Amino acid sequence: MASSLALVALLLVSCAVVAAAATKYTVGDTSGWAMGADYTTWASDKKFKMGDTLVFNYAGGAHSVDEVSAADYAVCTASNALQSDSSGTTTVTLKTAGKHYFICGIAGHCSNGMKLVVDVAAASPAPAPKAPSTTPTTPSTTPATPASPGTSSGLTPTTPATVLAPPAKQSAGAAGLRAGSWTMLGLAGLAAVQLGLF
């Protein structure tokens, strides 16, 4: 039973991990990282989250990818860049939530549209798998008592008592039973004694 529960929990966690897998975005899609592209529109319908990656494709040496502060983004300066690359293919993993600002550091390129802002959502924790209930269920076994003389209904169910005690009247076969034996017999034994089967 424990191994089955562990297997179910593992499957649920695996599904959650797959659902929360990082997304790889190619900046500008087929246009790549180039002058004349509209990166505001490109980013507007995307839901960036922590762990996603941005891939900037461009002609190496002709452009750069510089992550900058909001203030440097506003004035198109890469002089205090947080990170910079001009290799031609730059991959940036979005590791923190909040806005990330990217520009091309080549003079005049940022002011001609080579600038991108991505708003990264905090990673939502994977939902914890719910463990199946381990509370044992007790079957409803209501002892029956014989019907009163003159009735034709046979057996009449009675409400189960909170504390089980031996019946006041015992049949001859059950007279020697002690209180501890009643516990071992359980409700089925009690019903059998009540019905006079012993």
TrEMBL record:
Keywords for this protein: Glycoprotein, Metal-binding, Signal
GO MF annotation, one: metal ion binding
InterPro entries reported in the protein's UniProt record: Cupredoxin (IPR008972), Phytocyanin-like (IPR039391), Phytocyanin_dom (IPR003245)
Organism encoding this protein: Oryza glaberrima (African rice)
Residues making up the signal peptide according to the UniProt record: 1-21
One Gene Ontology term, aspect cellular component: plasma membrane
Segments forming a coiled coil: none
Pfam families: Cu_bind_like
Disordered, as annotated region: 125-165
Keyword Signal: yes
PROSITE patterns, per the entry: PHYTOCYANIN
Domain Phytocyanin positions: 23-122
CDD domains: Phytocyanin (cd04216)
Protein name from the UniProt record: Phytocyanin domain-containing protein
